Amino acid sequence: MAEVITLPNLCPHVRIEIDGKAYRVFSIRYTHPKDSSENAWSLFTGTTEKPILIDKDTLQMLAGKEITWLYKDASAINLEPTIAACEIRDDGPIVEEVD
């Protein structure tokens, strides 16, 4: 059985609006997207019902791993559950970056 590693989301309550749509953000490096350049982020559509904005350094860490998102409950402000963390394993489906 593969070792499970839990990576906390450093920006769990951040939502970024792009073209009128609000996206949840996941990063193990940045506490807010403003802390990096706009080009450091990608829209990830691999394992969730709705796309997530993830920095490319975090995506590189997730590449080739099976991931499971860990959520907190939705609130009156954010209707989608907050991504609190993710668990990664070395086996399972491969995560690939999608721009």
Q: Count helical runs.
A: 1
Number of strands: 7
Number of domains: 1
Helix content: under 10%
How far apart are the first and last residues' alpha carbons, in Å? 32 Å
- Radius of gyration equals 13 Å
Principal-axis shape: globular
Which ranges are low-confidence, i.e. pLDDT below 50, for 5 or more consecutive residues?
none
* Mean pLDDT over the residues: 84
Share of β-strand residues: 35-45%
Overall structural class, as computed from helix and strand content, comes to: mainly beta
Q: Largest sheet, if any?
A: 4 strands, mixed
Could you spell the SSE succession in H and E letters?
EEEEEHEE
- In spatial order, strands of the major sheet run 2-3-5-4
Which terms summarize this structure?
99 residues, mainly beta, 3-stranded antiparallel β-sheet, 37% strand
Outline of the structure:
By secondary structure, this protein is mainly beta.
What this model shows, in words?
It contains one helix and seven strands. It has 99 residues and is mainly beta. The protein has one domain. The strands form two sheets. It has a four-stranded mixed beta sheet with strand order 2-3-5-4. The chain starts with a strand and ends in a 10-residue tail after the last strand.
Topology:
Blueprint: E1 5-8, E2 15-18, E3 21-26, E4 41-44, E5 52-55, H1 56-62, E6 66-72, E7 82-89
Parallel strand pairs: 3-5
Antiparallel strand pairs: 1-7, 2-3, 4-5, 6-7
